[in-house]
Amino acid sequence: MPDTPFAPVILGNVPGSFPHGVLAERHPAIIRQVREAFPYGPAQRRALDELLESCTEGTIEPLPADAPDRERWLDWGADTCTGRSWYDVPWLWSESYFYRRLLAAVGYFGPGAWQGIDPFRPAKRAELDAPETDRELAALDGLRDLPEPERGRALLHGSLWGNRADLGFRLSAEGAEERAPAPALVADDSERLWSLLPPGSDATLVLVADNAGRELVPDLLLIAHLLAEGRAARAVLHVKPYPYYVSDATTADVLDALDRLRAAPGAAAGYGRQLWSALADGRLAVRAHPFSCAPLPYERMPGDLRAEFAAATLTVLKGDLNYRRLVGDRMWPPTTSFAAATAYFPGPVAALRMLKSEVITGLSAGIEAELVAAEGQRWRTDGTHALIQVR
Ligand SMILES: O=P(O)(O)OC[C@@]1(O)O[C@H](CO)[C@@H](O)[C@@H]1O
């Protein structure tokens, strides 16, 4: 068998499938949530109603002629998708375009008074301010006296399992977190990850973030740890240029997370101070590249991003959506080689992800059999399993 067998691109047009459910149920629920988030005026509400009708029963319409990113979306395939049902084009494309249109409906791209107002901010803030976040930050005090490798491992796992903090997913997967996973970690290349970032190295770490709040906070803690322990000399944090997939992190969310850390008692505040000075002296940089919201796999990344990933000692991609984009949003046989599926990536790459969609590569036949025996195919999407894969 070749390393990368043929695998079909995932569409949302199979009733009863996970992607179909996202388009038919999750997207309408997100529109309802956004309607409640702010006292939007009649024009915005009308635009939201029109989007609801379009994305459930209509076809994909082009961006207006004066949209500043119209050319970019044409490059990303808008002309081939226009006029087709949202269900019949690649699922990744439909989902991405949905968020672009949702933001336009509420006036996010302006001009006007609502320009730049994140419709998901109330939900993100509520999560960041929740007592669970206090408990997670307080747990940092218990790590203080551990030897560095153990502290590092704990923070890596905090960042990995922090990927639970996906507010869009929670709209359609209530109770997923409570189910007992077997085995919880379906692939674990963490030793290879640590070997790429030895103490005293001159490494450049790129971390491509996923969700804000209770995922971004542990991502920042991991970065602070790697910088403080000399496992990385510099780090670049990639966030989204605009709100996306409900809870994806933007620069504003980084600042909120930083404030939360700095205002916390105990060890958390120390991490906050370290991150603040790393940002101030340039050891930590934040980037919001347009391609971070592209409806395409990373294989199609533009040259400047490719050069940045090529220059990094390690690029860590967080979360389910980044995983889909990394290996390609296809129905791979689960034992497809992760190394082969990511061979195009220009440097060492790690995926830290909870399983929340059907895309998966790099499983051993034994683990796949164990998962299927215990759960049928539910393990792929129910958000109870995680993986650390490195190439
Ligand atoms: O990237 P994340 O936050 O881990 O997950 C994103 C997600 O919730 O959204 C998609 C469905 O809308 C799925 O890929 C996945 O379940």
Search tags:
binds 1-O-phosphono-beta-D-fructofuranose, 391 residues, Rossmann fold, 7-stranded mixed beta sheet, alpha/beta, 2 domains
Average pLDDT, all residues: 95
Q: What structural category do the secondary elements indicate? A: alpha/beta
Estimated helix fraction: 40-55%
Oligomer: single chain
What would CATH call the architecture of the largest domain? 3-Layer(aba) Sandwich
Give an overview in words:
The mean pLDDT is 95. This protein has a 7-stranded mixed beta sheet, sandwiched between helices. It has helices at 18-37, 42-57, 70-75, 78-81, 91-105, 121-128, 131-138, 148-161, 167-172, 190-196, 216-228, 251-263, 267-281, 303-311, 319-327, 338-341, 365-375; strands at 185-188, 204-208, 234-238, 284-287, 314-318, 349-354, 386-390. The chain contains 17 helices and 7 strands. It has 2 domains: 18-117, no CATH class; 123-390, Rossmann fold (3-Layer(aba) Sandwich). It is of the alpha/beta class. Helix 11 links the parallel strand 2 and strand 3 (234-238). The longest helix is centred in the first third of the chain and has 20 residues, at 18-37. The structure holds 1-O-phosphono-beta-D-fructofuranose (F1X). Residues 22, 26, 95, 163, 166, 168-169, 210-211, 245, 319-321, 324, 356-357 line the site of 1-O-phosphono-beta-D-fructofuranose.
